[in-house]
């Protein structure tokens, strides 16, 4: 048991049913461990300088803090350093896409001793304008925006995942959409598909126009005709498969023949597969389907989904690392961090794979590069 400042033991109080303990100061924790308060502070606050402290000592500090119910005085630390150690995250909804990105962001922030709070704007233009101001009022040090059309610069560092605008003070973390189109359409062309239907994303998605332009350019390069009757645009955005169902119904109602479909994302691809099956068509027997994102359910759909993998968790970590690097350094702000996609081949474009066969990636491992 730890000793108090006057050499006595810290006593448990048993007021009521639940035992509680008097709040322990950092100095008392250091005395209990026979370490200096500075050493304990460096480790507890997960500072970079803590890397010089032996790992065994760090483990001993965290173990003692846990056993003695020590909690750092966050407000005192914030006032002393004039920092909140808090990041704001803006996103449109709680889709698998957002969840995977946020998971990567959270992992990195947690390791670095930062907290975050998130707000979903549901693609409401007023909330997209208002939420960054509310986050500023709550003293966030920076903002990570996911699939959110930030229209102007803000008075704090901003990193935008799927951002395609040049905004002063903002860094965009983007996928190489041209490479993604090459992987997807190249795969379908090699499978012998020439009559391909294309699904354009909803207007509210930041990636829609860039992805569509890339698809059009690569289709021309591969001499694949994009018939207007086989190009459909999604009218709404939801995190559910219903976003892909009605557009495929429209395609089928047109009577135009197609043997493959390149969907906007995995969720819409899953809805598309259901629409095709409801019309009596087999996937991939009658129509091959390619998705985009590689969300967790893509591998477990029936049939499992061939898709373009965005390394979403890794992109989240890149966004968080880029933001914290900017907070720690006042150097040059990178305009863009580009991430490579990967093609994952599964059952929705091929004859049924053996259950034991792993998915087949068809590109080099994803890597990130910065372009100032």
Write up what this structure looks like.
The protein is built from 11 helices and 16 strands. The protein is an alpha/beta fold and 372 residues long. The chain folds into 3 domains: 12-72, lambda repressor-like DNA-binding domains (434 Repressor (Amino-terminal Domain)), CATH 1.10.260; 83-175 and 314-339, Rossmann fold (3-Layer(aba) Sandwich); 177-310 and 341-363, Response regulator (Rossmann fold, 3-Layer(aba) Sandwich), CATH 3.40.50.2300. The strands form 3 sheets. The chain has a 7-stranded mixed beta sheet with strand order 4-3-5-6-7-13-16, with helices on both faces. Strand 8, helix 8 (208-221) and strand 9 form a beta-alpha-beta unit. Helix 1 (26-33) packs across helix 2 and helix 9 crosses helix 10.
> What name does the CATH topology of the largest domain carry?
Rossmann fold
CATH level-four homologous superfamily name of the largest domain: Response regulator
Poorly predicted runs: 1-21, 352-359, 363-372
* Assigned CATH class of the largest domain: Alpha Beta
Main beta sheet: 7 strands, mixed
Calculate the terminal CA-CA distance, rounded to whole Å. Answer: 54 Å
Q: Beta-strand level of the residues, as a percent range?
A: 15-25%
User: Order of strands across the biggest sheet?
Assistant: 4-3-5-6-7-13-16
Portion of residues in helices?
A: 25-40%
pLDDT averaged residue by residue:
86
Q: Indicate the overall shape.
A: elongated
Count all strands and give the number. Answer: 16
Given the helix and strand composition, which structural class is it?
A: alpha/beta
């Amino acid at each position: 048991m730890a000793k108090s400042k006057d050499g006595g033991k810290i006593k448990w109080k048993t007021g009521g049913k639940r035992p509680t303990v008097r709040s322990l100061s950092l100095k008392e924790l250091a005395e209990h461990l026979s370490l200096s308060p500075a050493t304990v502070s460096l480790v507890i606050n997960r500072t970079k300088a803590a890397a010089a402290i032996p790992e065994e000592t760090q483990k001993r500090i965290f173990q003692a803090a846990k056993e003695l119910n020590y909690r750092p005085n966050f407000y005192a630390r914030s006032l002393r350093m004039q920092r909140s150690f808090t990041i704001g995250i803006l996103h449109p909804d709680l889709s698998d896409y957002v969840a995977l990105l946020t998971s990567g962001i959270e992992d990195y922030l947690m390791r670095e001793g930062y907290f975050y709070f998130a707000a979903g704007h549901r693609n409401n233009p007023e909330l997209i304008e208002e939420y960054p101001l509310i986050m500023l009022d709550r003293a966030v040090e920076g903002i990570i925006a996911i699939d959110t059309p930030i229209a102007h610069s803000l008075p704090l560092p901003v990193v935008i995942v799927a951002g395609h605008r040049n905004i002063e003070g903002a860094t965009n973390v983007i996928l190489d959409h041209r490479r993604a189109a090459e992987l997807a359409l190249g795969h379908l062309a090699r499978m012998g598909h020439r009559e391909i239907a294309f699904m354009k994303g909803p207007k509210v998605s930041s990636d829609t126009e860039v992805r569509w332009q890339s698809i059009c350019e690569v289709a021309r390069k591969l001499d694949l005709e994009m018939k207007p009757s086989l190009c459909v645009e999604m009218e709404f955005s939801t995190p559910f498969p219903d976003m892909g169902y009605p557009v495929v119904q429209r395609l089928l109602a047109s009577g135009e023949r197609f043997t493959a479909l390149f969907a906007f994302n995995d969720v819409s691809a899953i809805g598309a597969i259901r629409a095709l099956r409801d019309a009596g068509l087999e996937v991939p027997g009658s129509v091959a389907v390619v998705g985009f994102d590689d969300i967790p359910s893509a591998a477990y759909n029936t049939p499992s989904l061939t898709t373009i993998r965005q390394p979403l968790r890794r992109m989240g970590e890149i966004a968080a690392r880029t933001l914290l690097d900017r907070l720690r350094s006042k150097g040059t702000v990178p305009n863009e961090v580009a991430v490579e996609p990967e093609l994952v081949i599964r059952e929705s474009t091929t004859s049924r794979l053996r259950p034991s066969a792993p998915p087949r990636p068809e590109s080099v491992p994803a890597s990130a590069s910065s372009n100032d």
